[in-house]
Write a structure and sequence with these properties.
It is a single chain. The chain is mainly alpha-helical. The protein has one domain: Farnesyl Diphosphate Synthase. The protein contains 16 helices and no strands. The longest helix is centred in the middle third of the chain and has 28 residues.
């Protein structure tokens, strides 16, 4: 597929959610930078970039009312995740070797499950993960820790899938990409923090209620599509293999890159409208904690959006992206019809 190198102007995107940020965001940001250097996350060059991306501020936006210690753990964990995604996969040789990557990620996953396991001693990513698990265990229940591990497993699995395409120079179709995009942005790994940071826990019956599962999946989808919109310029300028919703949509039809961008924006607008719709239509079925969780998913979406249009990660000061400075309350598409993506049509059957 021909690479899409066009410079696109990103219009204000639809966001019906209110912005917020933790009162200790400056301290959280400073400490996350210290943590990255303490554990040598990524190469010195990568680390120097990561600490300038306001990742602590990102966590503070996602958990504006969370326990400060847990918000700090999330900030450090996101730094760690970028160490895996950017360092091990996009910039490292394992990103083109799915078999070897699978083995390496399996070892890291074992460290998350059993941090005392005598393996990967001295490995920066493993030692950083041990620190994260130890600190998280002080705040999370055994069930929440298990969900964190499983969310990380789902993220790792998606990285292996991505490495397969990278190794062959291929791009997935829209349905496959929409499915994997719910996982390869690590939203499933960060999601347990929504409850842990706020001191509540969904019972498994509450978490696996069809409406709650759909709300979570829609949040992951919106976050992934938003990241693809905000990162389009940055990724188009880099030397590495990139999968992005705009590129995937552009590859499936004869239209222009700007037309593909409009379609991707319409996808996420329709999903956002449906997120609000099913939350409203099924409100009487949900418990107090489920309502709280739905609000926390909305904060996750909005926190990612505010970070996406303000972080140097996507603004790319050396070659500035044309990103919006605000959002709109008017969607480009709020149709009640399902998206033309089979993997997500179940959201419209509720």
């Amino acid at each position: 597929m021909t690479a899409v190198k066009d410079t696109l102007s990103i219009p204000p995107i639809y966001s019906p959610f209110l912005p917020a940020i933790h009162r200790s965001h400056d301290r959280i940001q400073e400490r996350s930078s210290v943590w990255a250097h303490q554990w040598n996350i990524g190469s010195p060059q990568l680390r120097s970039h990561l600490v300038r991306h306001d990742i602590g501020t990102f966590a503070a936006r996602v958990l504006p009312d969370g326990d400060e210690d847990v918000v700090q753990i999330l900030a450090d964990f996101i730094i760690w995740l970028f160490g895996v995604d950017d360092g091990m996969c996009e910039e490292g040789p394992l990103g083109h070797r799915p078999g070897e990557l699978s083995a390496s990620l399996s070892r890291l996953l074992r460290v998350a499950q059993q941090p005392s396991a005598p393996m990967l001693s001295g490995d920066p990513l493993a030692e950083g993960l041990r620190d994260l698990q130890r600190r998280l265990a002080e705040h999370a229940s055994a069930y929440q820790l298990a969900r964190w591990v499983e969310g990380t497993r789902a993220y790792f699995f998606s990285l292996i899938w991505e490495a397969h395409h990278r190794s062959h120079g291929t791009q997935p179709g829209l349905n496959d990409y929409a499915l994997i995009r719910m996982y390869n942005g690590a939203a499933t790994a960060a999601e347990p923090f929504l409850e842990i940071a706020r001191g509540y826990q969904l019972h498994p019956r509450e978490r696996h209620h069809p409406v709650v599962e759909a709300l979570a999946e829609m949040a992951f989808f919106i976050i992934g599509w938003d990241n693809d919109i905000f990162s389009f310029h940055k990724e188009g300028r880099g030397p590495h293999f990139v999968m992005n919703a705009v590129r995937v949509v552009h590859a499936t039809g004869p239209g222009s890159p700007s037309g593909a961008l409009s379609q991707v924006i319409a996808h996420r607008d329709r999903a956002t409208a449906h997120f609000l719709r099913i939350g409203r239509d099924h409100a009487s079925e949900l418990t107090h904690h489920q309502h709280r969780y739905a609000r926390d998913l909305a904060a996750f979406i909005r926190g990612n959006q505010d970070w996406g249009i303000s972080s140097d990660r996507y603004i790319n000061p050396a070659d500035p992206a044309d990103l919006p400075s605000e959002f709109t309350t008017v969607p480009t598409d709020d149709s009640p019809d399902p998206l033309p993506i089979p993997a997500v049509r179940g959201w419209w059957r509720l």
